[in-house]
Amino acid sequence: MVTTYLRRAYTSFATHIYDVPPRRLAFMFLLLFLAFPATNPPQYILLILVIVNMMAIFAASWDLLVGRTGQMSLGHALFFGIGAYTTALLNVFTDLPLWATIPIGMLLSFVTAVAVGYVTLRVKGPYLALVSLAFPIILIGAIFYFKDVTGGERGISGLPRFFPYLGLYEQRLAEFYFSLILLLVSAVILYKIAYSHTGIVMISILDDEVASKGCGINVTKYKVMALAISSIFASLAGGVYVHILQSVSVGTLSVDLSFMAVIMTIFGGLGTIYGPLAGAFVIQLLDRYVLNDLIVVPSTWRLLIYIIVVIILVIKWPRGIARFVTDQLGDISKAREIEERGSHIWKKYKKKKK
Amino acid sequence: MYLLEVENLTKRFGGLTAVNNVSFHIDEGEVVGLIGPNGAGKTTLFHLMSGFLKPDSGTVKFKGENIVGLAPHKIVNKGIARTHQIVRPFRHLPVIANVMVSLKSPRGNKKIEWIKTIERKALDMLENVGLTELMLEPAENVGHGDLKRLEMARALALEPDLLLLDEPFGGLNPLETDFLTKSIQRIHLDHPTRGIVIVEHKLYALMKIVKRVIVLHEGEKIAEGKPEEIAKNKKVMEVYMGKAM
Amino acid sequence: MLEEIIIHGAITGGTLALLAIGFSLIYGVSEVVNMAHGAIYMLGTYFYFILTAPPPYGTFQLDVIPAIIIAVGLSAILGAIIYRFTIDPIIEDLVAVLVVTVGVAIVIQQLLLIRFGAFFRGVPNYVEGFRTILGVKVTNSHLLAFTVSVILFLCLWLFITKTKIGTAMRAVSQDREVTMLMGVNTVRLTMLTMSISSSIAALAGILITASTTGVAHPTMWQTPLYMSFAIVILGGLGSIKGTLIGAFIVGYAENIFVYSVPGGSYLKGMVALAVMTTVLLVRPKGLFGKRVELED
Question: Nearest chain A Cα to C275, which residue?
Answer without folding.
Answer: A131
